[in-house]
Write a structure and sequence with these properties.
Elements (H helix, E strand, L loop, with lengths): L4 E7 L5 E7 L2 E6 L4 H18 L19 E4 L6 E6 L9 E7 L7 E7 L3 H12 L11 H8 L18 H6 L3 E10 L4 E8 L4 H11 L13 E10 L6
Parallel strand pairs: 3-7
Antiparallel strand pairs: 1-10, 2-3, 4-5, 5-6, 6-7, 8-9, 8-10
Length: 245
């Protein structure tokens, strides 16, 4: 049995690209040098080598290159392909037909670049639709935050029912006997979609703090009061260990 979690809410460089689209905060650049399948395989091979090298006495095992729709994202930490990549595939396909990452390019103003790799036709169409649905991520530097807040205040969104499921209790924290209370601040758009969450009072355990933030980033709160473009909420999350009966 997992301990109860109490919740309270209170108002508070890729290969040479070809430019394709430039709208608002996002510029899409499509590569014609590397295919999406080659990119996918390269990222998985690099990950397998890195994990194999991290285990003394073991050679990296050949990676499974089949596409798993449950894991459409690949994170690369080194080199020109560093970043979080999202891949798309047709239903039942074993290889993706599109993939892209967002790369910060802001200098004088808030701006991102999408490095896009896609198969002509359905692959590129699916990628364009996914990019059209992308929401502007928080900027990596505070200087551009006012620009980002202005974008969030005008982005398309749909009001809906409040959805704030409790975070999973991390197994590592359970094994370590970690518990505690986290206080988070949520920044939401006018429809109540959480656009950023951060810890203002820690549980004292990083694993629990990360679990709280990951859960909160997927929440939907009540819409903000009429006339407001964005809102701020304060959240209290209690991670309690199971009590032996």
């Amino acid at each position: 049995m997992i301990g109860a979690i109490a919740l309270a809410l209170a108002v508070a460089g890729a290969p040479a690209p070809v430019p394709a689209d430039d709208t608002g905060w996002l510029r899409v650049e499509t590569s014609r040098v590397v295919t999406v399948q080659a990119l996918w395989e390269q990222l998985l091979v690099q990950r397998a080598r890195r994990y194999g090298a991290a285990m003394p006495g073991r050679n990296p095992e050949p990676p499974d290159l089949r596409f798993d729709p449950a894991y459409p994202r690949v994170v690369e930490t080194e080199g020109e392909l560093a970043g979080e990549w999202r891949f798309l595939a047709a239903e039942g396909a074993e290889r993706p037909h599109a993939g892209y990452r967002l790369r910060w390019a802001g200098e004088d103003r808030y701006r991102w670049i999408a490095d896009l790799y896609c198969e002509p036709g359905a692959g590129c169409e699916a990628a364009r639709a996914a990019l059209d649905a992308e929401r502007a991520p928080p900027p990596p530097t505070p200087d551009h935050r006012p620009d980002w807040v202005a974008i969030v205040g005008t982005e398309a969104c749909e009001p809906g029912p409040v959805h704030t499921p409790a975070p999973d209790y991390p197994s590592r924290a359970l094994r370590a006997g970690a518990s505690g209370r986290a206080t988070l601040v949520l920044f939401v758009n006018r429809c109540g979609d959480v656009r950023q969450a951060w810890v203002v009072e820690s549980t004292g355990d990083r694993t629990l703090d990360r679990a709280a933030v990951r859960a909160a980033e997927r929440w939907k709160t009540a819409p903000v009061p009429d006339g407001q473009a964005t809102g701020t909420y304060r959240v209290v999350l209690d991670f309690a260990l199971p009590v032996d009966e």
